[in-house]
Amino acid sequence: MARIIGALTTSHVPAIGAAMAKGLQQTPYWKPFFDGFGPVHRWLEDARPDVAVVFYNDHGLNFFLDKMPTFAVGAAAEYRNADEGWGLPTLPPFRGEPELSWHLIEHLVEREFDITSCQEMRVDHAFTLPLTLFWPQGVPVTTVPVCINTVQFPLPSAKRCLALGRAVGEALRSWESDKKVVVIGTGGLSHQLDGERAGFINKPFDLKFMDSLVNEPEWATQFSIHELVEKTGTQGVELLMWLAARGALEGPVRKLHSNYHIPISNTAAGMMALTAG
Ligand code: DHB
Ligand code: FE
């Protein structure tokens, strides 16, 4: 059976892509952010996962406001990034893992999650940047994108997203394969890009949330979506993807590393690496 070796989470601010393309990682603005990834790079070199299941939110590239699935799973042989502006170098397509995609979809539907299955799917910065941050030398893993709607209301609750992650974890552990899987959750932490509260950041809430993910992932499920928006900003609800990724881990979890830095663009940028056992 496949083995889940850990969960990695990170913010996905588009400016990170421009910083990597221009080689700005060691400049004063970016260093506190990029330095967070060193311990994870070393762990990944050693742990060598084969597959990454990526919980992320599409921002209007693959799904727009006219058709917005709550949960969507990619089932394609490859996933292409489409230009978002910024003049970034074109990335090669990300390799899919269709057999696992279909296993996931079947398991999730059996568990009563109503999934949109996508045999074609373009991926945006929320998928591409985290993979590039974790593997800056080139992404060696195959991938399965799992998209959670955090763009158009109504959004799925924190409780539902944690349950989705748990069901994905079950599916991975029952996949007949000897592959090693890492789950990734992207987005957050607190940020608001629009409206009267643009620039809103809530450090005490973010730190409590990060802490809760290690031993008490249910903590965030006490909040409704509207309460989460109030506490973390309109885009801060992207923390739902962290919760789903954490949900895939079973039993005791160890925190390998975390980093938190304000601001990157308008965002409180966080990352965490949790390992199984
Ligand atoms: C920013 C953050 C995001 O999560 C995003 O999707 C786009 C922009 C920002 O802070 O600039
Ligand atoms: Fe985002």
From TrEMBL:
Keywords of the record: Dioxygenase, Oxidoreductase
Organism from which the protein derives: Ramlibacter rhizophilus
Molecular function via GO: ferrous iron binding; oxidoreductase activity, acting on single donors with incorporation of molecular oxygen, incorporation of two atoms of oxygen
Residue stretches making up the Extradiol ring-cleavage dioxygenase class III enzyme subunit B domain: 7-268
InterPro entries: Xdiol_dOase_suB
Name of this protein: Protocatechuate 3,4-dioxygenase
CDD domains: PCA_45_Doxase_B_like_1 (cd07949)
Source superkingdom: Bacteria
